[in-house]
Amino acid sequence: MDLATGTIFLAGVLTFASPCVLPLIPVYLSVLMGGSFDDLEAMSQGAARRGKWRLFMNGLFFVLGFALVFVLLGMSASALGGFMSRHRLLMQQLGGLLVFMFGLKFVGWLKVDALNAEKRFRLNAGKGLSPLSAMVMGFTFAFGWTPCIGPVLGAILTFTATNTDTVTGGASYLLAYAMGIGLPLLVFALLAQQGVRLLSRMK
Questions:
Q1: Averaged confidence pLDDT in the chain
Q2: Residue 57 to residue 148: CA distance in whole angstroms
Q3: Where are the alpha helices (DSSP H) in 35-87?
């Protein structure tokens, strides 16, 4: 793993730990499991093991859902790399200005109402939640939480577009970002009840 990929992966981990993502992880895990973690604790040992396995599988498909969106974004950004490489200095200057404005927005010094808008799809979060439904949830996570992840994601897309002109390069950068968000989530899914208690203390 090169320095750029490692840094982007770390940005994904920090996105997972951001104040508007981390506190909602127990909610997402409960929906993916199809019930509360108290229900899991009250199950028999065999049923609890099946519940944790279902939670992990749904969590895996949830991660695949938003990872696919990020990878497609990376491929689109790198497809513009040929043009941007011919105007690299201008693109880096404009990108730096954009990241600076995102930073002002992130700390609340710049008010842009359009960047605070979000769209959500509502799924049936009953006990019959399937891996396919979890994958659709991952899609909505990638598209719906741009007010939170937008500044970091925008910076990574700008870096990708100005530093690689290959589709595979753009895909690898955004896959690293998605894994930075997704791997901690899967760890908490494996820990199940203990993971949620840890998140409660971390909040």
A1: 75
A2: 26
A3: 37-42, 45-79, 81-86
| Measured distance CA(18)–CA(6) in Å, rounded | 18
CB contact at 8 A, 8 and 156: yes
Say if CB 147 and CB 118 are below 8 A apart.
Answer: yes
C-alpha span between 156 and 162 (Å, rounded): 10
Contacts of residue 181, Cβ cutoff 8 Å, sequence gap at least 6: 12, 13, 15, 16, 21, 63, 66
Quote the pTM value: 0.69
How far CA 151 is from CA of 2, 69, 185, in Å, comes to 23, 16, 21
Give the pair of three-digit tokens for residue 28.
Answer: 């997402």
Other CB atoms within a 10 A radius of the CB of residue 156 amount to 27
3 state DSSP class of 145: coil
The pair of structure tokens assigned to 57 is 């599988």
pLDDT tens string 129-159 = 688 888 888 887 777 666 667 778 878 888 8
Mean pLDDT of 14-31: 79
Q: What per-residue confidence (pLDDT) applies to 139?
A: 81
Question: Are 185 and 27 contacting, i.e. CB atoms less than 8 angstroms apart?
Answer: no
Residue 60's pLDDT is: 92
Terminal-to-terminal C-alpha distance of the chain:
31
Q: Running DSSP on this structure, what letter comes out for residue 108? A: T
